[in-house]
Amino acid sequence: MKKLLILIFLFITAQASQAQEITGQWNGVLKIQGSQLRLVFNITKDDEGYQATMDSPDQGAKGIPVSSTTFEDNTLTITVDNIGFKYEGDLEDDGHIVGSFEQAGMKLPLDMYREVVEIKENIRPQEPKEPFPYYSEDVTFKNKKADIELAGTLTLPEKTGKYPVVVLISGSGPQNRNEELLGHKPFLVLSDYLTRNGIAVLRYDDRGTAKSTGDFSTATSHDFSTDVEAAIKYLKTRKEIDKKQIGLMGHSEGGIIAPMVASRYKKVSFIVLLAGTGIPGDELLLLQQQLIGEASGVNETELKQNIERSAQVFNLIQKAESTESLKVELTNFLTESISEIPDSQKPSGMTDEEFIEMEVDQITGPWLQYFIKHDPATILEKVKCPVFALNGSKDLQVPPKENLEAIEAGLKRGGNSDFKMLELPNLNHLFQESETGAPSEYAEIEQTFSPIALEAILQWLQTQIN
Questions:
Q1: Sheet with 68-72, side-by-side order of all strands
Q2: 262 and 404 share a domain?
Q3: Closest by alpha carbon to 271, among 254, 283, 285?
Q4: Strands (DSSP E) found in 57-180
Q5: pTM for this one?
Q6: Is residue 114 part of a domain?
Q7: Using one digit for the tens of pLDDT, what is the confidence trace for 229-264?
Q8: 291/270 same-domain check
Q9: Range of 23's domain?
Q10: How far is the C-alpha of 1 from the C-alpha of 50, rounded, in Å?
Q11: Both 304 and 273 in a single domain?
């Protein structure tokens, strides 16, 4: 989170506007990735025009200069060239500025006011607070294959006894044991709910994240599956765990990893796939790009061009014989198509050559290459334990129809008939009750995990463990 705030600090600048007088102090709060950062912009004017500086009170920074400040036709425009930032805002009749900033294709709202604006505390009514009515223990266990130590939390209904257990597997990106993102802690809510209802839960920090060791950046989904195996082996050493009732529950990418482990480790009792995928990675990303682009209001022509470029890039990845050859092919492709990429998607202040190098480095990372090439259906065919797959109907990241159908088809091809598919109305990728399902809503929704989804999960688990 500290790294995120530093990044935010680097790519924001002053803004303000005024139909009558724009000079003076303006205050606002930038909301990004579930975090809030107070900003203060100080605008002055002399014979040469407008100047501005920025303060970031939450980071102890004052007097940060911006590159340019203009105010024309009631519109304020501010840029910071060395970080590729642009801000535009219009002064409203009521005296506040309505605007947004852009950088590297990202656009977020930022309104400014004359009066001081305070940070509003995120309201997360479902987040449990101590003391808990169950036993909670911080634990560590080793993945000997990767030579790393993973840190997590094991919750038990009581300190003594023997209980069925679920291992929670997080989605893509470095996540802590609570799968914390955008101010929400889905795995904390989920583990609390299950443990209160008689089921033990192990959740852990991803490798290289929080208190777990290892290198997250070089790992693939397959590598993460060995972390899950290490978790199972650890649980088998605990006298409080029913060794015949160890199940896996994976969210998003975790829903890819859980079947990997179950296909290899036959003693896995059951798996739950929370917005898990059933279609190949390249197909999923193209669908995701289409749906999120439409929900975000991206121009239809621009969106079509973006998807076509992505498809060409994915094709190069599929056919590449090595990472080095892929880097060469991607560099050539991006060099030829750079003129077609809108300026809004390229950081200003960065040359085309620098932009291409950045893109190539990101695309050729081991995780993305593996994800694009991986077909979850081929693994699902090997899963013989009971499976519960559920999706929200408004999930734009893992579209429910295509993925649930593919999961079911894969299981049937392998001869597995012990499964349940469930699409829950109005829920997004995080299983929140939502309006559109767009990722931009995640942080704004107070609910962390729909009670309807929690109940459906518990009811199915109880059919497996009783």
A1: 68-72, 75-80, 85-91, 97-103, 106-109
A2: yes
A3: 254
A4: 61-65, 68-72, 75-80, 85-91, 97-103, 106-109, 135-143, 148-156, 163-169
A5: 0.80
A6: no
A7: 999 999 999 999 999 999 999 999 999 999 999 999
A8: no
A9: 2-109
A10: 34
A11: no
